[in-house]
Backbone:
């Protein structure tokens, strides 16, 4: 089966390198290249594309935004390509078939493409879902040997700094490369992305309910379902947070 | 007799006062050292920032793949310059502006390789300005912010401008980018690095510096610093 691939990366040299590497595979045809998320969403209208190489960090609309926009169901088999591992677990949450770090190593690309071919051949969704879960678990095990979670964060409060126990956090809001902690009506900034932060917190208490927010489950008062994909949370403090479909699934899993 | 007692009390007071002053000076010195360690750490984090480092290595790999060896070597030389300079700086000191500028130029040269036509760089510093002294790691956080907000977040990219000149007895420096308008949240995320610079300037040049942040109405972000001009020793 012929693989029809789309390359999405905002750095020209990164696209050059991937294109050059893919040229060595006879069964891969590159049908397009995009330098940003919006163009990628447009290009993905072409239903003949069955393989997507997706960079995570891009201006304005990043890799995860592209997936949210296109929808996991209509997505071709997706290989994430990024400079750093921090998004790996999240990538599998959105059902990426593999995850490559830059600079790409030939053997890893080989392996990823083998996985793509197998998946296209098998076509048995029930089985692949199981495989994915196994893969995800194995990656989590590799990445987090006996993980201990953060107990408190050092935050700045005007002129002084204070040690904030994580249990006091109501919820966390993404703000570009920073995170804003909402604590009992006050806000503190941390120089860390929400993904990094989410990885440091105990998943039994903190759930990423949306791309831009992590919530302390102890603070949730109500869960509202507003449609097939949209839902929201009301916290004990009265704040309302949006919840994505993936976020809702995560919350449900925790309740089980 | 009374005079002797008063004299004695006065002496004790003066002694205690001078002790206190010495201690205060010491505390202040420790504070600035702490600040500087933080600045160094931040600078290191910027250069060793995994995204910056791995994307740079990926770009170099791509250049080699295309047999653009000259360009690959140049990029590696810039990376080498950045890592070496950063690792060699250890104490809270002033450095010749020329040196700080080279660091920033190397950083921007690498970003130019990565972002190609998405980034336009304009650097102008008079020879006189280059001879001045500045606290180390003064410009780096500013340029890093400018790239993050002005280039990485905008698909059409933008302009990074860096200017320096001597104005009478002062050294005038400016870093700006022409990114889109600055909302409150963006000002927030600029704040942490900027505070560090502000505090170090206040220590090195108490009452004798200016530090201005502007968000011009036509978009972008602009930071201007003025400090007393000090000539760097010719041999350094």
Residues:
């Amino acid at each position: 089966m012929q693989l029809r691939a789309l390359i999405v990366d905002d750095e020209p040299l990164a696209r050059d390198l991937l294109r050059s590497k893919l040229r060595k595979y006879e069964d891969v045809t590159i049908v397009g290249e995009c330098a940003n998320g919006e163009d990628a969403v447009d290009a993905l209208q072409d239903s003949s594309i069955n393989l997507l190489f997706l960079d995570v960090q891009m201006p304005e609309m990043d890799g995860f935004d592209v997936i949210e926009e296109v929808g996991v169901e209509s997505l071709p088999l997706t290989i994430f390509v990024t400079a750093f591992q921090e998004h790996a677990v999240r990538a599998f949450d959105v059902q990426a078939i593999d995850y490559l770090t830059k600079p790409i190593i030939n053997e890893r690309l080989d392996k990823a493409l083998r996985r793509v071919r197998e998946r296209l051949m098998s076509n048995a969704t029930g089985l692949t879902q199981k495989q994915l879960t196994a893969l995800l678990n194995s990656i989590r095990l590799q990445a987090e040997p006996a993980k201990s979670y953060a107990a408190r964060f050092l935050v700045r409060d005007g002129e002084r700094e204070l040690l904030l126990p994580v249990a006091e956090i109501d919820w966390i809001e993404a703000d570009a490369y920073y995170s804003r902690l909402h604590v009992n009506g006050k806000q503190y900034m941390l120089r860390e992305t929400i993904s990094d932060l989410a990885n440091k917190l105990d998943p039994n208490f903190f759930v990423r309910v949306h791309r831009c927010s992590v919530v302390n489950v102890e603070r949730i008062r109500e869960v509202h379902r507003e449609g097939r994909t949209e839902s929201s949370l009301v916290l004990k403090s009265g704040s309302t947070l949006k919840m994505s479909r993936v976020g809702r699934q995560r919350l449900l899993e925790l309740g089980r | 007799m009374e005079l002797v007692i008063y004299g004695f009390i006065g002496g004790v007071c003066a002694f205690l006062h001078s002790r206190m002053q010495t201690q205060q000076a010491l505390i202040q010195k420790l504070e600035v050292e702490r600040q500087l360690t933080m600045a160094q750490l931040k600078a290191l984090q910027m250069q060793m920032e995994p995204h910056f480092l791995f994307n740079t290595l990926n770009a170099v790999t791509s250049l080699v793949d295309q047999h653009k060896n000259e360009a690959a070597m140049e990029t590696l030389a810039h990376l080498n310059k950045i890592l070496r300079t950063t690792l060699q700086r250890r104490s809270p000191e002033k450095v010749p502006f020329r040196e700080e500028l080279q660091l920033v130029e190397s950083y921007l040269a690498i970003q130019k390789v990565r972002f190609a036509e998405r980034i336009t760089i304009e650097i102008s510093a008079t020879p006189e300005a280059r001879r001045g002294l500045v606290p180390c790691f003064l410009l780096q956080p500013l340029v890093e912010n400018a790239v993050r907000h002005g280039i990485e977040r905008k698909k059409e990219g933008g302009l990074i401008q860096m200017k320096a000149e001597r104005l009478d007895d002062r050294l005038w420096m400016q870093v700006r980018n022409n990114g889109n308008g600055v909302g409150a949240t963006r000002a927030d995320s600029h704040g942490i690095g900027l505070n560090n610079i502000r505090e170090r300037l206040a220590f090195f040049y108490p009452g004798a510096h200016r530090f201005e942040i502007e968000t011009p109405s036509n978009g972008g972000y602009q930071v201007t610093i003025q400090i007393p001009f000090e000539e760097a020793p010719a041999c350094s």
The interface with chain A takes residues 50-51, 54-55, 57-59, 61-63, 65-66, 113-116, 118, 148, 151-155, 185-186, 188-189, 191-192 of chain B (CB under 8 Å). Residues 44-228 of chain B form a domain with the Heat Shock Protein 90 fold (CATH 3.30.565.10). The two ends of chain B are 60 Å apart (CA to CA). The first strand of chain B starts at residue 94 and ends at 96.
